[in-house]
Amino acid sequence: MVTADLRPTQVLVNEQAIFENIQQAQRLAPHTRIFAVVKADAYGHGLLRVARIAHLAKVSGFCVAVLEEALALRQAHFTEPILVLGIVAPELAPLAAVHDISVPVGDEAWLKAAEPLLAKADTPVLKVHLAVDSGMGRIGFRQPQAIAKAAAFADAAPHLLVEGLFTHFATADEADTQYFDQQSARFNTMLQALPKRPRFVHVANSATSLWHQKTASDMIRFGVAMYGLNPSGRALPEPYPLKPALSLVSQIVFAKQIHAGDAVSYGATYHAQQDEWIGTVPMGYADGWLRRMQGFSVLVDGQRCEIVGRVCMDQFMIRLPHEYPFGTPVVLVGTSKAATITLQDVADYASTIHYEIACNLTQRVVRRSISRL
Ligand SMILES: *Cc1c(COP(=O)(O)O)cnc(C)c1O
């Protein structure tokens, strides 16, 4: 996809903020390894940019969602351990092994399919993390006998090494810990079923690292909190202040005065009540600024300006308090004078979570670093 790097619309990534969020996590859990979760283009912040910051912060490794993301890190010469979090086809086991990429396994059939392929290609040993479905209902072993049998198969297989055992919590970001505790207990039962403890036993996403610090874990899969976002939205208080790394800015590229009764945008759903100044912002739903953001506000000169009329594919319009020239800065996410709009505010308005807003910002929007390390 073409990145519009000549347009004033840009995602600004505060590198220092990411670095400090990692440092905070390291301080809170000094004996736990931090794996930086950089899947989905680092939650929209830029894969290689964030990997570099995490490397400078001395994380122990990276987590990604798909094999291609892991390969991109290897291609960029990152030598840290990398764990893919989603199931990879057994046919790709040799490729993962050659690049020293660890993969999750949720059933014995996967191991049985992969071993002969690894043997045939004469690859280095493939490191696998056995996934436990302790209640997330997504991937992983559910029965102690099944995981014990799979671990025995892997132990006897010359090209497989059980490097890890892990699970994922469904409710680590909620105040009620009953389901979390149940998952935790199930995971421990599965751990006991293994003949020996793997090198990495891990359960913690950001939320678990923040609100369940006692839950034993050799490594934290540190995702959304690294980007300065509260995993619970507004539900739980942050044990340390997270610094949001992402802001989204643009400019007024066109401004005009319209008069009572004049309409704005598709469907002509908005009509001016009086003389009004309308500015046009070059960002639309093709950039990830959802159509349903109509009626929300952006910041111009510290003032909230309503998005009027429908959001178009590449542009939207705002009502200005008075005339502003083209080139005037517009803040969609971030701070303008005393006013701030957060990704959480955007998510609330769009009835979703901040993760989704960040991931939806498309490759057309240029990413630039600020406070570069
Ligand atoms: C995405 C993901 C994480 C990171 O979650 P955050 O809430 O962003 O910290 C951790 N573990 C697994 C298995 C994941 O899929």
From TrEMBL:
The lineage of its organism: Bacteria, Bacillati, Bacillota, Bacilli, Lactobacillales. Transmembrane segments: none annotated. This is Alanine racemase. Pathway: Amino-acid biosynthesis; D-alanine biosynthesis; D-alanine from L-alanine: step 1/1. The modification N6-(pyridoxal phosphate)lysine is found at K39. It holds the Pfam family Ala_racemase_C. Coiled coil: none annotated. Belongs to the alanine racemase family. Keywords: Isomerase, Pyridoxal phosphate. NCBIfam families: alr (TIGR00492). The active site is at K39, Y266. Its cofactor is pyridoxal 5'-phosphate. PANTHER family: ALANINE RACEMASE, ALANINE RACEMASE, CATABOLIC-RELATED. Its EC number is 5.1.1.1. Substrate binds at R138, M313. Residues 245-370 form the Alanine racemase C-terminal domain. InterPro entries: Ala_racemase, Ala_racemase/Decarboxylase_C, Ala_racemase_C, Ala_racemase_N, Ala_racemase_pyridoxalP-BS, PLP-binding_barrel. PROSITE patterns: ALANINE_RACEMASE. Gene3D superfamilies: Alanine racemase, Lyase, Ornithine Decarboxylase, Chain A, domain 1. One of its GO terms (molecular function) is alanine racemase activity. SUPFAM superfamilies: Alanine racemase C-terminal domain-like (SSF50621), PLP-binding barrel (SSF51419). Catalyzes the interconversion of L-alanine and D-alanine. May also act on other amino acids.
